Amino acid sequence: MFGIIGGTGLASLRELKVLKRELIRTPYGEPSQPLIFGTLAKHEVVFLARHGSGHTIPPHEINYRANIWALQSVGVTRIISVATVGVIDDEVKPGTICIPDQIIDYTYGRKNTYFDGAGMPVKHIDFTHPYDEPLRKVIIHSAESISKKIVSEGVYAAVQGPRLETAAEINRLEKDGANIVGMTGMPEAILAKELNLAYAAICPMVNHAAGRGQSKNAISFSSMSEASDSDVYRLMMKDVIELIQAIISKN
Hints:
CATH architecture: 3-Layer(aba) Sandwich
Shape: globular
Order of helices and strands: EEEEHEEEEHEEHEHEH
Distance between the termini: 10 Å
Strand content: 15-25%
CATH topology: Rossmann fold
Number of helices: 5
Radius of gyration: 17 Å
Number of domains: 1
Oligomer: single chain
Number of strands: 12
Mean pLDDT: 90
Structural class: alpha/beta
Largest sheet: 12 strands, mixed
CATH superfamily: Nucleoside phosphorylase domain
């Protein structure tokens, strides 16, 4: 069964035919919201808004362990994460979807493993390929099947937030090899891997990162909001939902 984690811009999934909502109690506390069970493209799915129902939980305070554990506990085996990002490359215009294949983690202080605490054994998880490649290919092929233009690979820089980055920090991220920047890619990806869940991300590139392109002097917050009046933003979210429906319907 697919689980869908919605981020900024996808706090709800109107196309989902809701069957029930259930608050899952986990050993790590409560998830961001009750899990929403329903059908999408005639298939059962579970939806979770990572920032909570009213988008009230900042990236560094999300209970990532509870979110991933809750999804796994109800039978989710594949997770599609929707996470809006800034694009670092000046030549790439916002309005395109990226399916990243790598991550650089710049976060700190987050609960980023299930293997800690008294009596827990030390366990090292291979993270060479942070995203599940078969699931990435499913997403890419689904996009091709409905003629959606995507960027099929990229390096996601996961930063702490909730503030946005300085222009100098973006320069550093680019030198490190990152193409896109966001705040929620970690520790979601590693936690899913620890629980043997297939995990991949759909990243709408909604704005240029600080000091780049349209954000050379400042980043427009309206371009990053679900209430944005930007046609580009609305079309992107429409594309994301259509892509998710194509993925679910064919897999």
